[in-house]
Design a protein that fits this description.
Elements (H helix, E strand, L loop, with lengths): L29 H9 L19 E8 L10 E3 L4 E2 L8 E5 L6 E7 L7 E2 L4 E8 L11 E7 L37 E7 L28 E5 L7 E5 L5 E5 L2 E5 L8 E9 L4 E6 L16 E6 L13 E9 L20 E5 L8 E9 L4 E2 L5 E3 L3 E10 L16 E5 L4 E12 L6 E2 L2 H4 L4 E5 L10 E10 L7 E2 L2 E6 L4 E6 L2 E4 L2 E8 L3 E4 L5 E9 L7 H4 L4 E5 L2 E2 L5 E4 L8 E6 L8 E8 L5 E2 L4 E7 L4 E5 L16 E3 L9 E4 L6 E14 L2 E5 L2 E6 L6 E2 L5 E7 L7 E3 L9 E6 L8 E10 L9 E2 L1
Parallel strand pairs: 21-31, 32-40, 33-41
Antiparallel strand pairs: 1-2, 1-5, 3-4, 4-18, 5-17, 6-17, 7-14, 7-18, 8-9, 8-17, 9-10, 10-13, 11-12, 14-15, 15-16, 19-20, 19-22, 22-27, 23-26, 23-29, 24-25, 24-27, 28-31, 29-30, 32-34, 34-38, 35-36, 35-39, 37-38, 39-41, 42-44, 43-51, 44-50, 45-46, 45-49, 45-52, 47-48, 47-51, 52-53
Length: 771
């Protein structure tokens, strides 16, 4: 008896079909509950309720026996129990088959009017999670198949194809005349067959795996491939009454076990367009940890595909892809009193990121905004620092003609918000690079919540390439929790989904720098002397453990409002090994005011708050200018008179003349000399010397010195000048005072008075005299 299926269109990116003879058990099924509870993240297969919506890129078909029909009644109906939601993503689990529903089959396909196709001329990757239930082998359903096809069998478009239940798995032919024509045409299938069918009974529809007598891999559950619509796939046999039954030729069968453990099993498929080889890996990812399995646990193989059986040579290379599955199919010779065993399973599929959908390059970053540096796993961040969690999504434009463009529909976000961070609405949003209005997050979206659950408002495409999710916050004190846990954020839509991890990091309370003066904060220094101050740097009063630790925190110096950090010298205090005890030497030339204000401050850093300033007052005594030396009992050389005019020089000692000036640059002084009393004998001023006192500066001709002041030396202070000037040291033999004795001079001891005057001397200072 021929069996014809009726399809139901459901909104989505794939198409699916199922048949069932019983009602759905729903949440009375512990295996179902566990499957939904533990389902991994996948794309949303249906958005809304309309499968034909342009947002959806899958289409489904599922059929079952009409409820209440007799066991031999072939009446079938559409089954609308298609999707369930995982704890992460709504409508992300396709229920191909369910426990308790015999004669049920289903399929999920890439949708006709979407770009969700495999181009056989281009490499591609597929990944998905399969769930086969937890029943014993003798009670489990038939299994599932991954299928590539370009069939329009029975008037259905490619996204509504489905063959039959039982051993057909929704894709292979149905036993009877022209068996290959009843399969999905122009197709290749990789089956995950959970029940070995090796019955030789006519019309039992249970003989596809009869080769198990010769091929051990087919004696139990197996993975194998073939071409469902190809005549060579099937072999016809005759029973003793010359009635026909059929077996199937399996390509590269491999046994697989442990699928009925009630867990999800990962499958990866990679298509090599040049070699025309499909490589599959079953159980390559651990469902509990998400990590790759040890190779010994993986079932894998490489299968050559004859693409001419799927597409014509002139084809653009596009085929539809999807999953089919079925439960046990009843036969016409069954009766209500002698039914076949309940062989059914919760055959579910979650689709991850096939290349036919994946047009996004995601990037994730976590930044310490206070320092401007990225935060790596296990690094330390200082409390009070601002941090930014960022997720960037960039549309990946097709690179060749065999790739279709497709808009990435707005994603829904599920982003954990660690409680150790005070979140801020300022700077937190979804921004778009094409000038679209951003989607800001409010304070109520962030604080007091464990996760941020929001959806974008914009799609991504070749013209609208980038969306960036930014979430700003401030790290709380170390006491709140010393570790901010890593996060796994989830983003999903109808044609893209991903999980993005952020690192965990440690929290360290900021160092509270405290700077305190050691000794007096007020001091007076001589005009030309350097000043020295001392201070201690601690962590809120606690001495640093080492000098190296203390040295991490630079101390700035400001003098009279000007930064002089580079101009003063900071050194450890001699004889004091306490970490953080320092001494600063302030050069005299920086002390330009009579009252100088010095301020020291620990500037802080990435892990420290700045200290309060410590202030010092340095009073600089005014500069002084005075005679540092005056001639003390100066004398001219004793000379024998000759009756002729003669010049008499000075005695070599006691003519020292010098000026001390410690004032600032550009200060000036002038020394003059005059003859206050002419030279005379004893106290008798009437007995004056016949002659003159002469005076000459170096390099000048001597002139007569009288009561009028004569310049001895003029000086202007310049940078680097000594504070003391030895004037008499510049005279030599010909400069300075000399005595010109006249021819009529009488013998005797003469004395006179010179007046040495220092101009611009301190107020009230008298000009000393020398005799």
């Amino acid at each position: 008896m021929k069996r014809w299926l009726i399809g139901l269109a459901v909104a989505g990116v794939t198409g699916m079909t199922l048949t069932s003879a019983q009602t759905v058990l729903g949440h009375a099924d512990a295996d179902l509950d566990n499957a939904l509870k533990t389902a991994p993240q996948g794309v949303m297969l249906l958005e809304g309720t309309d499968e034909t919506s342009s947002h959806n890129v899958f289409r489904t078909r599922k059929i079952k026996r009409v409820d209440g029909a007799a066991m031999n009644d072939r009446a079938l109906m559409n089954d609308t129990n298609l999707f369930s939601s995982s704890k992460w993503v709504p409508n992300s689990i396709m229920k191909l088959t369910e426990n308790g529903n015999q004669e049920q089959e289903g399929a999920i396909w890439s949708k006709v009017d979407s770009s969700n196709r495999l181009n056989l001329y281009k490499n591609a990757h597929f990944s998905m999670w399969l769930h086969f239930g937890d029943k014993p082998i003798d009670q489990i359903g038939e299994g599932m198949a991954f299928v590539l096809q370009d069939s329009r069998k029975d008037g259905y478009l490619q996204d509504k194809q489905l063959s039959g239940s039982g051993e057909s798995l929704g894709v292979w032919g149905i036993e009877g005349e022209n068996i290959a024509t009843k399969a999905i045409q122009k197709s290749w299938a990789l089956e995950f067959d959970t029940h070995s069918n090796h019955s030789k009974t006519y019309n039992a529809l249970q003989g596809f795996d009869l080769d198990g007598d010769k091929v051990p891999e087919l004696s139990g559950p197996h993975i194998a491939s073939g071409y469902p619509g190809d005549d060579s796939t099937y072999a016809m046999h005759n029973d003793q009454y010359s009635r026909h039954y059929y077996s199937m030729n399996h390509l590269q069968p491999k046994p697989f076990e442990g699928f009925n453990d009630g867990q999800w099993h990962h499958v990866s498929l990679d298509w090599d367009a040049q070699k025309k080889v499909m490589t599959y890996k079953y159980d390559d990812v651990d469902a509990q940890t998400g990590k790759e399995q040890d190779e010994s646990k993986i079932i894998h193989d490489q299968v050559k595909i004859d693409t001419s059986k799927l597409i014509a040579p002139a084809s653009n290379g596009d085929v539809f892809w999807g999953m089919t599955g079925s439960n046990y199919g009843r036969t016409a010779n069954q009766t209500a009193t002698n039914p076949d065993p309940d062989r059914s399973e919760n055959g579910f599929v979650v689709i991850e990121n096939p290349d036919t959908l994946d047009r996004v390059v995601p990037e994730v970053s976590l930044t310490d905004e206070t320092t401007g540096k990225p935060i790596a796993e296990g690094e330390t961040v200082i409390s009070g620092h601002k941090v930014k969690y960022q997720y960037k999504f960039t549309y990946k434009q097709p690179v060749n003609k065999n790739e279709r463009e497709q808009e990435i529909q707005p994603l829904t976000m599920n982003v954990p918000l660690p409680s150790q961070i005070q979140w801020s609405a300022s700077g937190s949003d979804v921004s778009y690079d094409w000038g679209a209005q951003s989607d800001p997050f409010s304070d109520s979206d962030l604080n007091g919540q464990t996760t941020l659950n929001k959806a974008w408002t914009q799609t991504l495409s070749k013209d609208h390439k980038t969306a960036t999710v930014s979430i700003m916050g401030t790290v709380k004190d170390h006491n709140a929790d010393p570790v901010v846990p890593g996060t796994t954020s989830r983003f999903y839509g109808t044609n893209y989904q991903t999980t993005l991890k952020q690192p965990s990091f440690k929290v360290q309370d900021a160092v509270k720098l405290k700077l305190a003066a050691l000794g007096k904060t007020n001091q007076t220094v001589q005009h030309r002397d350097d000043a020295t101050v001392q201070a201690s740097l601690t962590n809120d009063g606690k001495v640093f453990a080492t000098t190296t630790e203390a040295a991490k925190y630079p101390i700035t110096a400001t003098l009279n409002g000007k930064d002089v950090t580079k101009d003063v010298t900071q050194t450890p205090i001699a004889g004091d090994s306490t970490p953080g005890h320092y001494q600063w030497t302030i050069p005299a030339e920086l002390l330009t005011q009579s009252e100088n204000h010095l301020s020291l401050k620990a500037a802080g850093g990435q892990d420290a708050s700045a200290s309060e300033a410590v202030d010092y007052v340095i009073t600089r005594e005014p500069g002084k200018v005075y005679f540092s030396a005056l001639p003390d009992k100066p004398a001219f050389t004793a000379t024998q008179l000759t009756g002729n005019s003669q010049v008499v020089g000075r005695e070599p000692n006691n003519w020292n003349l010098g000026v001390y000036d410690d004032r600032d640059e550009n200060s000036q002084w002038l020394v003059t000399v005059s003859l206050l009393k002419p030279f005379h004998v004893g106290d008798d001023l009437s007995k004056t010397l016949d002659g003159n006192i002469l005076f000459a500066q170096k390099g000048e001709q001597p002139t007569v010195l009288d009561e009028n002041a004569r310049v001895v030396m003029a000086h202007k202070m310049t940078a680097g000048d000594d504070v003391e000037t030895n004037i008499s040291g510049t005279w030599g033999a010909t400069a300075g005072p000399t005595l010109n004795v006249g021819a009529g001079a009488a013998q005797g001891d003469y004395n006179g008075t010179f007046q040495w005057t220092l101009n611009n001397a301190p107020t009230g200072q008298e000009a000393p005299k020398s005799k």
